[in-house]
Design goal:
15 strands, Rossmann fold, 16 helices, 6-stranded parallel sheet, globular, 2 domains, 7-stranded parallel sheet, alpha/beta, about 375 residues
Length: about 375
Amino acid sequence: MAAVRVLHCVAGLAHGGYESLIMNLYRCIDRDAVQFDFVSSFPGVYESEIEALGGVIHRIPFITQKGPFVYTHALDRVLAQSPRYSIVHSHMDKFSGLVMRQAKKAGIPVRIAHSHNTRNEGGLAFQVVKDYYGNMVLPNATHLFACSRAAADWMFGPEANRAHILLNGIDPERFAVNEMARASVREEFGISDECLVFGHVGRFTPQKNHDRILDIFALIHKQAPGSALLLAGTGPLLDEMRQKAARLGLADCVHFLGSREDIPRLLQGMDGFLFPSLHEGLPVTLVEAQAAGLPITAATTITSEVCITPLVKQLALESSDEVWARTALEQAMENRPVRSSPRQQIAAAGYDIRQTAAWLTNFYLGLAQSYDPTAGGPRS
């Protein structure tokens, strides 16, 4: 029997929170039973891996590139292809409303809207557009997913309680404490073992608050002059943050790493993780950092659902940079001699990706068996 092909709709395939979740699932899911295909607008590092795993990538221009009509027309062509998809799973937050509407028009029987955030990005006009499409989610989606209760509340409002919380699982074994990896990271960046290394993984966008990360690290560096900061990610604010690091006199100790495929290794080289995001759904990178035994100083704007272990210390964004710097330093110094991987806690909390992948495989198969994909309706 041929595998059920699920069409995942995403903006792009670069490193990011929901992209990491999808790829973690894709690597672990039973691909003899379920196969992933993608609608994507922006290229990214995952494309070659997806194709090697048997996935098809339908590349179409994004809404912000050529407008909603061009995007809709291109999406309609994908949805009309034969053999027809019986399941469409959209990860585009409120833009998922457009995907759900077109999938319903195309007769796709299973339409999943998945919330990965708790707030719109962009300026006022962009937010108005997203809210417009967000109003299309509930009338057109057949199933609702979210990464956290807060993400469900934001996107689904009165229907949030019927959303399934699909935890942002990881493979804990990939993040197990590894002294060789730690040594190789420090050698790569010329950092001695005695020095403290802080880090962050995330796109350079306003949401991630890199401006604040640099202010906090500037104070850390004053108290620990040999300390370094590793920033993995790309995005529109990257050049601006490079310039700020230079203005703060930190050009030699702040390392801008770009998009990296060795995040588990990089986490091993750190002693502390800074995460003052303005808002998040449930950041998978914080689950990864905990699996690596890394102490985290995170904002209270992030749902407490991510606090799987005592490694996470949450502070209000209103707290001073001095409080953030002191807390991060204390955590790093306290944890450094006794670092270990809390694999059992990660698994017990439901964040082992193998558990999630097994559940999702059964979920997809159960839905697919209930519908005739050639007729677009329930089987008799």
